[in-house]
Amino acid sequence: MRFRLTPRETSFYDMFAASADNIVTGSKLLMELLGADNAGRAEIAERMRAAEHAGDDATHAIFHQLNSSFITPFDREDIYNLASCLDDIMDFMEEAVDLVVLYNIEELPKGVEQQIEVLARAAELTAEAMPNLRTMDNLTEYWIEVNRLENQADQIHRKLLAHLFNGKYDAIEVLKLKQIVDVLEEAADAFEHVANTVETIAVKES
Fold first, then answer.
1. CB–CB of 198/133 below 8 Å?
2. If residue 168 lies in a helix (H) or strand (E), which one and from where to where?
């Protein structure tokens, strides 16, 4: 690890960890969505909205700290990118839940539960990885596994699209469901963006 002669602002590590923990909360709410009825889904959407607001607050706190810190633990651009990508994940998860409620979806297509399981696993890995930014240790397996999960998410997404266009659903229902599964796919992509940013930071700091 690169030797430094200047002190570093360490509160960023705690803020990234808090942001990732909040994402785990969001992924658990997605899991709850699967078995909920319409009334339950509306309540889950409210809790997801609160979690998304908490994520926004965490992101703004990181940006504020970035703008007010003379010394940062790694490149300012990488701090900004990491915070933004973490924020994107929460935004996509909240959007997916909101769409299910707004569209009054009676039954999600088979395969959505697999999408959400992938997101939940990626959330756990991301939360476990953030504290390791302090030392840059044990991160390689994290970004390799998240990239593998994103590839798995791509395959699930393609199968879901094929299912939606097999003639079982009417055109309007296809549009609604496609928007939901697309947003969940964007969440998987955002997890990969976080992992790629962490890899970039680790390479620079090695």
1. yes
2. none
What are the φ and ψ backbone dihedral angles of 6, each rounded to 5 degrees? -115, 150
The answer to whether 142 touches 128, Cβ cutoff 8 Å, is yes
Instruction: Measure Cα distances from 164 to 5, 71, 105, 178 in Å.
Output: 58, 51, 14, 7
Give the separation between CA 191 and CA 120, rounded to whole angstroms: 11
User: 111: alpha, beta or left, given left = phi > 0 and alpha = psi -120 to 50?
Assistant: left
What are the tens digits of pLDDT across the range 15-42? 999 999 999 999 999 999 998 988 899 9
Q: Which of 118, 107, 113, 116 is nearest to 149 (CA)?
A: 118
Q: Judging by beta carbons within 10 Å of its beta carbon (0-12, 13-18, 19+), is residue 27 exposed, middle or buried?
A: buried
Give the CA angle between residues 194, 47, 161 to the nearest 5°: 55
Tokens at 92, concatenated? 């996509």
Q: Tell me the CA distances in angstroms from 124 to 24, 149, 162, one per residue in order.
A: 6, 12, 29
Residue 174 CB neighbours (<10 A) = 17
Q: Which two tokens stand for residue 103?
A: 């569209």
Dig out the tokens for 112 from the structure.
């959505």
Q: Measure the CA–CA gap between 202 and 122, rounded to whole angstroms.
A: 19
8-state DSSP, 5: S
- Give the pLDDT confidence of 50-83 residue by residue, as tens digits: 999 999 999 999 999 999 888 889 899 999 999 9
